[in-house]
Amino acid sequence: MTVNVTVTGAAGQIGYALLFRIASGQLLGPDTPVRLRLLEIPAAVKAAEGTAMELDDSAFPLLEGIDVTDDAKHAFDGTNVALLVGARPRTKGMERGDLLEANGGIFKPQGEAINSGAASDVRVLVVGNPANTNALIARSHAPDVPAERFTAMTRLDHNRAIAQLSKRLDAAVADVKKMTIWGNHSATQYPDVFHAEVRGQNAAQALNDAEWLRDTFIPTVAKRGAAIIEARGASSAASAASAAIDHVHTWIHGTPEGDWTSMAVVSDGSYGVPEGLVSSFPVVCKDGKWEIVQGLDINQFSRERIDASVRELEEERDAVRELGLI
Ligand code: NAX
């Protein structure tokens, strides 16, 4: 059956890297036809139409149609997978409150449109920053959609952590399992290797280097976005698109046996993360559903870092609450 996929911010740089991979079958698999809805602001509709022309020109056998629109209601009507990439970036001199307010103006109506028009199996991934709190805003305006269908992306951080660890241990990426990102997709995020495994061995033991972990690994992963901007002169785009593909593909098709992934999901209170916050956890996916991995021992080092990132999420939640956005 054809799956309707909505991509917001379709004319942006992540959109440009993402759409061709969706259309080629990498999001949903090689047997699933897809129909795309591209949502943009009016000023960028023409650019999105240009991307749609290129999608046509690629003659993807799985691509059944493309709609470009600036109307959220139309964009989310009947959608099965919604990738919310478009967001208001922080500009010079902008306070956090202004940023949250501007994004509330985007994610509130999008949540409402998803609530009223999306398909009953809709799955939502928020990529646009501040991703966790934007997901919280959208979710709180979609009361008829089960809360677990709203997620935010920390898969890029997860993939970055795997890449850094595998390089350090001279291992293949495929040898690294059970990596975890906790908390917010921001500089406070906590990439946790204490439960990770490399070639079947505990990663923290294999590293045996607390200093590298604290002073190099964690800041490198958390500040990788800034390092990419510094090097490329533009923010991560293809890697972010790749992570978005991974996130949805894993959610639908499942995590491999003996492994898990990281997703920012609505907390049920696990690991002391207040209920309702959209925070990153280790999750396993099966039959199209995610579940937080339970029962992990959290050492003091990890506890402090998880708490710090969760505190930031609470502050963001309180700020959007004060602004009347949730
Ligand atoms: P771009 O500025 O290239 O594109 C954003 C697009 O969104 C623009 O075309 C803009 O017109 C559109 N847009 C703005 N408001 C909209 C609305 N109300 N409805 C529909 N479209 C709208 O940004 P890009 O590099 O593509 O990044 C997109 C978002 O991803 C940013 O918020 C960015 O911060 C975030 N990221 C999140 C990451 C994550 O791991 N969660 C990593 C990568 C990226 O930084």
TrEMBL record:
Substrate binds at residues 90, 96, 129, 160. It holds the Pfam family Ldh_1_N. The keyword Membrane does not apply. NAD(+) binds at residues 9-15, 103, 110, 127-129. The keyword Oxidoreductase applies. One of its GO terms (molecular function) is L-malate dehydrogenase (NAD+) activity. It catalyses: (S)-malate + NAD(+) = oxaloacetate + NADH + H(+). PROSITE patterns: MDH (PS00068). InterPro entries: L-lactate/malate_DH (IPR001557), Lactate/malate_DH_C (IPR022383), Lactate/malate_DH_N (IPR001236), Lactate_DH/Glyco_Ohase_4_C (IPR015955), Malate_DH_AS (IPR001252), Malate_DH_type2 (IPR010945), NAD(P)-bd_dom_sf (IPR036291). Keywords: NAD, Oxidoreductase, Tricarboxylic acid cycle. Its EC number is 1.1.1.37. Residues 4-143 form the Lactate/malate dehydrogenase N-terminal domain. Catalyzes the reversible oxidation of malate to oxaloacetate. NCBIfam families: MalateDH-SF1 (TIGR01759), PRK05442.1 (NF003916). Belongs to the LDH/MDH superfamily. MDH type 2 family. This is Malate dehydrogenase.
